[in-house]
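Bumping my old thread because nobody answered last time. Still need a sequence for this structure:
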């Protein structure tokens, strides 16, 4: 009877071995899943925010200086396109490039879902702070705001032009807000990283835009040219 019972029920050693095998199988099957797991981002928002940031920067290149002409020339509202606007615009783009290549690695602000363990893997190839997209969009808004304020206060004696307000401030503000929202919605940066980068960009752009507008007179000269070389 003892022999029959011994052969019909597993002993403690056999049961322990079976449990160990089962646990090992579970661990081995789970390990590859963790090693291969990557942080996924929204490609749609990634593409959209790239287009929005570039559009915000490009808008500053094609927006004319709108001002109320002084009595020395024909009085009234005028619009002049200046090639010299390339100076502040390209400076802001250059600082964005500097951020992408140098500053991000210095700040080491992890993107959502990234840490020391998975940094460098798919979805975590780069850091999130500063957000280049939000910085570029924010700097474009700051540049437009600086130019608008100087053209209104200094060159138009306080006269407000709705077209200048819309082109320099209104449209860039919409592009900037959607860009920052998109970076967060697409899980590319945290809210603090995205909005903080936009704020820094806006401050830098405001300073450069105001300095440029104060130094560069909006009127092309007495020839009445529309494009100022």
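Sorry it took so long. Here it is:
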């Amino acid at each position: 009877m003892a022999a029959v019972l011994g052969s019909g029920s597993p002993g403690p050693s056999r049961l322990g071995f079976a449990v160990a095998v089962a646990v090992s199988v579970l661990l081995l099957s789970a390990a590859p899943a963790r090693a291969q797991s990557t942080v996924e981002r929204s490609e749609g928002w990634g593409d959209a925010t790239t287009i929005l940031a570039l559009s915000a920067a490009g808008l500053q290149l094609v927006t004319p200086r709108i001002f109320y002409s002084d009595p020395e020339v024909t009085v009234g509202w005028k619009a002049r396109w200046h090639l010299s606007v390339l100076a502040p615009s390209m400076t802001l783009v250059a600082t964005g490039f500097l951020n992408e290549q140098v500053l991000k690695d210095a700040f080491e602000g992890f993107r959502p879902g990234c840490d020391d363990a998975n940094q460098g893997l798919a979805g975590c190839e780069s850091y999130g702070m500063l957000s280049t997209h939000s910085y570029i969009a924010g700097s474009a808004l700051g540049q437009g705001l600086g130019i608008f304020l100087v053209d209104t206060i200094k060159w138009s004696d306080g006269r407000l032009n709705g077209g200048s307000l819309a082109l320099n401030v209104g449209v860039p503000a919409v592009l900037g807000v959607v860009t920052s929202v998109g970076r967060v919605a697409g899980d590319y940066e945290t809210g603090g990283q995205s909005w903080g980068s936009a704020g820094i960009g806006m401050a830098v752009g405001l300073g450069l835009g105001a300095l440029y507008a104060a130094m560069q007179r909006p009127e092309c000269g007495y020839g009445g040219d529309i494009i100022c070389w």
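The chain has one domain: 43-228. Let me know if any region looks off to you.
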